[in-house]
UniProtKB/TrEMBL annotation:
It holds the Pfam family LIP. Keywords: Hydrolase, Signal. Residues 1-19 form the signal peptide. It comes from Chaetomidium leptoderma. This is Secretory lipase-domain-containing protein. GO terms for molecular function: triacylglycerol lipase activity. One of its GO terms (biological process) is lipid catabolic process. Belongs to the AB hydrolase superfamily. Lipase family.
Length: 450
């Protein structure tokens, strides 16, 4: 299909729902077209954080809530991102319709990176041979209830923390990085994160053909570590009911946190204790009764400090609250976090394994000595899924901490993702049932938090 045909197809999808100001989209896609626009950078100033940037709002002039989840509502060129992220030819931001934890219409933003290799596809009109055939949705762990620390903004200021987007682009994949916590920065809210991840993929697939992704053969995979694994796991288990037509070839999950209350107990008083206030203020944005309860139960003298996490990154919160007893911030201590209103919130958004079963192959890699989440919770989750026919490769690493396993597991995750994306999975891995292995990979230097 020619670029023009892609363009027309895209416009027909969009005009059918009339969700998007056609003129704006038309202008944007003209900008996107074949290096034509030397003025592209003028269309986009990254100086405003999401909380202040009017682009991060739902459209006001169209009834976007009536559109289907995954519908692209806005798109813009993000010209600085190819400077901060290696191997990117271009980057775009898409704002799309999604669904929050209460199943109300919501919206999220994802950043789509086009790999450098794709230049050959664009210049070789006669052959699709050089065009990408894989999309990786990469969920970055941002672990904060501060919307201004969302990846779409942070990536252009400081680049990416682990170089994994660049490596994936280096393999010729399209890479999308969703702000899966959404407009309220609902850190640790599983349903919100899963929906945002799935709809981010649907949104990207709506436009990716225009950028030359081989839609006839393209495969999609999800990958995330820690907070990113949270979003990816929820996407994997929600996909069957929320996005039944979306085909996902595989999901790689590292450093899982299956049980939010167990993680809280594990982290309290430890180095990572600052993730507790982040998680409580994040998950509660999806549960207004619990949010009001939490704020009302904070000891008055400590309330300001606790609530200041809303302006912190994960690293800042960890530095501020490390080794503290977070229960001590509450009038009623531990009990205040286990009342009925709190438990109802955890039941909806905090426990993996109760909303569905992944129907795609899954790779899980976890350090046995993970200090953020009890490995037994991961064992239990794997057992639960395996009992109902899931296809999982589960690596339990005998060495390393939570942070080290991110590095120790990276090459195994890449190898696994390559196989699901290039179609060789069945030849390399067992495509039936579960394979659980104790492994020993020790390549990571010690790295601290954040
Ligand atoms: C850039 O924008 C200016 C004014 O908006 C216009 O006059 C000029 O033709 C544009 N240049 C290109 C190469 O599009
Ligand atoms: C980034 O993209 C812009 C606009 O497409 C382009 O002019 C620029 O050369 C690119 N930079 C790099 C480093 O590729
Ligand atoms: C989560 O962890 C808590 C604390 O360890 C435990 O009491 C609870 O049963 C767990 N919930 C689920 C759903 O596994
Ligand atoms: C892994 O090691 C644990 C003990 O650390 C043992 O209980 C378990 O059976 C082992 N699992 C496999 C699949 O070898």
């Amino acid at each position: 299909m020619t670029l023009l045909a892609h363009l027309l197809l895209l416009f027909s999808i969009i005009s059918a729902t009339s969700a998007v100001p056609l003129k704006t989209l038309h202008q944007l896609f003209l900008k996107a077209d074949a290096d034509a626009n030397a003025n592209a950078t003028q269309s986009y100033y990254p100086s405003l954080p999401p909380s202040l940037d009017p682009w991060y709002r739902a459209p006001t002039t169209h009834d976007w809530t009536q559109t289907d989840p995954g519908q692209v509502l806005k798109i813009r060129h993000a010209p600085l991102l190819n400077l901060t992220v290696r191997n990117a030819l271009r980057a775009y931001q898409l704002l799309y319709r999604s669904t929050d934890s209460a199943y109300n219409p919501s919206w999220d933003v994802t950043t789509l990176f086009i790999p450098r290799w794709q230049a050959r596809c664009w210049s070789t009109a006669a052959s699709t041979r050089w065009c990408a055939h894989a999309l990786l949705s990469y969920q970055l762990p941002y672990d904060t209830c501060n919307v201004d620390a969302s990846p779409s903004f942070g990536l252009q200021l400081v680049g990416e923390p682990y170089g994994e987007v660049a490596d994936a682009l280096g393999l010729g994949w399209f890479v999308a990085v969703p702000d899966y916590e959404g407009p309220l920065a609902s850190y640790a809210a599983g349903v919100q994160a899963g929906h945002a991840t799935l709809d981010g993929v649907r949104a990207v697939l709506q436009v990716a053909g225009y950028f030359g992704l081989r839609m006839d053969v393209a495969k999609v995979a999800l990958w995330g570590y820690s907070g990113g694994a949270l979003a990816s796991e929820w996407a994997a288990e929600l996909a069957g009911q929320y996005a039944p037509k979306l085909r996902i070839a595989g999901v790689a999950l590292g450093g899982l946190t299956p049980n939010v209350t167990s993680v809280t107990e594990y982290l309290n008083g430890r180095e990572g204790a600052g993730l507790i206030p982040q998680g409580l203020m994040g998950i509660a944005t999806q549960h207004p009764d619990a949010y009001r309860w939490i704020v009302s139960r904070l000891r008055p003298r400590l309330r300001g400090l606790f609530l200041s996490v809303r302006r912190m990154t994960a690293a800042q919160a960890i530095a501020t609250f490390q080794y503290q007893d977070i229960y001590g911030y509450f009038v009623g201590g531990y009990q205040d976090l286990h009342t009925r209103v709190m438990q109802m919130m955890y039941n909806v958004d905090g426990y993996m394994g109760y909303h569905g079963v992944p129907r795609m192959p899954v790779f899980i890699y976890n350090a046995i000595n993970d200090e953020l989440s009890d490995i037994r919770d991961v064992d239990e989750l794997v057992d639960r899924f395996c009992g109902v026919g899931a296809n999982i490769l589960y690596h339990r690493n005998t060495v390393g901490t939570h942070t080290q396993e991110l590095v120790n597991g990276r090459q195994r995750a890449f190898a696994w993702l390559r196989s699901v994306l290039d179609g060789s999975y069945d030849e390399v891995y067992s495509s039936m049932g579960c394979t659980i292995q104790n492994v020993t990979y020790n390549i990571a230097p010690w790295v601290g938090w954040g």
